[in-house]
C-alpha cells in the first residue's frame, strides 16, 4: 500500500507566515537559515573526496530565493560530476559507482528541520499572543 506524504508548499507557508507579527517572521527566517546551514554542513561531511577528482564538497553552497526559501545546491549547470556521483551514471552513460551524499543528508534532516521550525514558530506565537503553557 502506497503512503501519501504531504509535500512542502512554500507559497502557502509564505502566505501564512506573512500574516504573523514581525517577531514570528524573524524566528522563521532564523530557522530557515539554520536549516540550510545544517543541510550544507552534513552534505559536505558526507561528500566523498577523491585525490584525482574535483572536490565536490567545495561546490556545495546555499542560495536564498526569498526571506523564507533557501536552496542547498551542489555544483553548477556545467558540472555534471555531482549527479553522476550521487546516482552512479553520468550524462554520457559511463558507469561509475554511486556514492550518495546529498539526498542522504536531506532524508536524515527532513524530520528534524520540520519539527524544529514548527516548534520555534509555535513558541514565538505563544510568546507574542500570550498563549498558555
List the defining traits of the structure above:
4 helices; mainly alpha; 52% helix; disordered N terminus; 2 strands; 133 residues
Describe the 3D structure:
With 133 residues, this protein is mainly alpha-helical. The protein has one domain (16-129). It has four helices and two strands. The chain has helices at residues 10-18, 22-46, 81-87, 102-129; strands spanning 60-66, 69-74. It has a two-stranded antiparallel ribbon with strand order 1-2. Strand 1 and strand 2 (69-74) form a beta hairpin. The chain is elongated, with a radius of gyration of 18 Å. The protein starts with 9 loop residues before the first helix and ends with a helix.
Task: Describe the structure in brief.
52% of the residues lie in helices and 10% in strands.
The total strand number stands at 2
Number of domains: 1
Order of SSEs, N→C?
A: HHEEHH
Mean of all residue-level pLDDT scores: 83
Counted by DSSP, the helix tally is: 4
Into which percentage range does the β-strand content fall? 5-15%
**Which segments are poorly predicted (pLDDT under 50) over 5 or more consecutive residues?**
1-7
Structural class: mainly alpha
Strand neighbour order, sheet with most strands? 1-2
What would the principal axes of the Cα set say about the shape? Answer: elongated
Distance between the termini: 39 Å
- The residue fraction in helices comes out at 40-55%
Major beta-sheet overview: 2 strands, antiparallel
The radius of gyration is: 18 Å
Amino acid at each position: 500500500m502506497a503512503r501519501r506524504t504531504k509535500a512542502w508548499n512554500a507559497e502557502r507557508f509564505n502566505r501564512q507566515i506573512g500574516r504573523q507579527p514581525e517577531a514570528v517572521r524573524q524566528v522563521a527566517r532564523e530557522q530557515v537559515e539554520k536549516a540550510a546551514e545544517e543541510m550544507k554542513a552534513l552534505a559536505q561531511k558526507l561528500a566523498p573526496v577523491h585525490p584525482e577528482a574535483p572536490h565536490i564538497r567545495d561546490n556545495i553552497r546555499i542560495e536564498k530565493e526569498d526571506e523564507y526559501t533557501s536552496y542547498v545546491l551542489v555544483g553548477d549547470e556545467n558540472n555534471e560530476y555531482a549527479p553522476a556521483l550521487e546516482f552512479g551514471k553520468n550524462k554520457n552513460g559511463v558507469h561509475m559507482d554511486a556514492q550518495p551524499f546529498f539526498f542522504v543528508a536531506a532524508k536524515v534532516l527532513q524530520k528534524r528541520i520540520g519539527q524544529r521550525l514548527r516548534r520555534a514558530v509555535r513558541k514565538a506565537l505563544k510568546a507574542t499572543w500570550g498563549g498558555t503553557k
